[in-house]
Amino acid sequence: MITTSRLEPLPHVYPFRFVERTLERGEEGGLSGRVSAVVTANARRVQDGLLAPFTLAEMMAQAALLLQGGDPEIGKTGFLAGLSDFVVTRVPEAGDVLSINVRLAGRLGPAVKFDGRLSDDQGREVASCGITVRTGGP
Question: Smaller CB count within 10 Å for the chain: N or C?
Fold first, then answer.
């Protein structure tokens, strides 16, 4: 695994960027590794101290994009095409530091499927799902 701590490019910017930085990058074609995110009390998606659950799926999709190098062209032309088996075990609270693990599950042409898991800084699972992203133009 390659470990890094710098903030990497991503086509998403505030208030739509939810991931922070790559912690580990695997060798599976850029689609495996671990990315971090911090839930802050003043984040746009935090209401009453809790992070909106649908944001967790977007975090996993952004983690996969970040592990591909954060290519702005992929971000401009690609899109989230599907979710499967989305399970939220615990809704993150302000102050939580999340670790997002993604692993390549398969590719078919411009469609890329991966498995994502979010856990908190104590290693407890927060959410998991399968995510399909379509890369490239229409």
Answer: C
> Where do runs of H (alpha helix) occur along the chain?
54-67, 72-77
User: Which of 132, 138, 4, 120 lies closest to 64, judged by CA?
Assistant: 132
Those residues with Cβ within 8 angstroms of residue 47's Cβ, 6 or more apart along the chain or in another chain:
none
For the chain, which residues make up each domain, given as ranges? 2-134
Q: pLDDT digit string (tens) for 96-135? A: 888 999 888 888 888 888 899 999 989 999 999 998 888 7
Q: How much is the pTM?
A: 0.77
Rounded Cα–Cα distance for residues 79 and 96 (Å): 27
State which CATH number among 3.30.1330.30, 3.40.50.720, 3.10.129.10, 3.30.420.40 fits the domain covering 2-134.
3.10.129.10
Rounded-to-integer distance, Cα 28 and Cα 26, Å? 6
